[in-house]
Amino acid sequence: MATSNLKCAFSSLSLSASVDQQTGSLSVFDVVDEIRAPQVPIHVQMLVLTLVWEKPKDQGHFDGRVFIHILTPDGKQAMIGNGDLKIPSDQRRVKAIFRLGGFPLMQFGSHRFVVSWVNAAGAKEGENLLDFEVVQVAEQPGPGAGPAGGPAKPGMAH
Which end of the chain is more exposed for a tag (fewer CB within 10 A), N or C? Predict the structure, then answer.
C-alpha cells in the first residue's frame, strides 16, 4: 500500500471557529497563543483546535484515525481525544473543528497540543503541534473594574 502523504495544510488554536455550510469557508476567531490568569487551576470555557488536512491530487480515499494529546509543563502527557479521519476519493481536503469545552489548565508554563494521524493500517502519517503559554498575571481588580462598571473580562492574549 502506497504512503498517502496526507499533510496538515492549516491548524490553529482559538476560542471559536466555524465552517459555512453553503460555501465551505472556514472562519477562526480569537486565536490563542497565551492565556493569562492570576492563579491556577482554571477552566477555559472553550478551546478550539481547527485543522485542515490535504491529500495529493492523485491519491484515492484516505481512511485513518486522528489522536489529540496534550503535553503539560511538568512533562506529563494525556490523550484528550481521538476519532476517524476520512477523506473521500473525490475530495482533496477535509476540515475538522475540535471543541474542548470546560478545558482545565492546572499549571503555568508552556503547553502543547500534539495532533497525530495514522492510516487504516495504523502507520503514523504525520503530526501537528500547537503551542500556548499559561502566564501568571496580577489579580484583576474586583467587580466594577470592567467596561461600563461591569465585571472585568478574563485575560486572554491572542
Answer: N
Domain with 37 in it: 7-18+29-137
One-letter amino acid of 153: K
Would 2 be classed as within a structural domain? no
Tell me the pLDDT of the chain (158 aa) as tens digits.
445 689 999 999 999 999 999 998 999 999 999 999 999 999 999 999 999 999 998 888 999 999 999 999 999 999 999 999 999 999 999 999 999 999 999 999 999 999 999 999 999 999 999 999 999 999 866 655 444 444 444 555 54
In a domain, 99, yes or no: yes
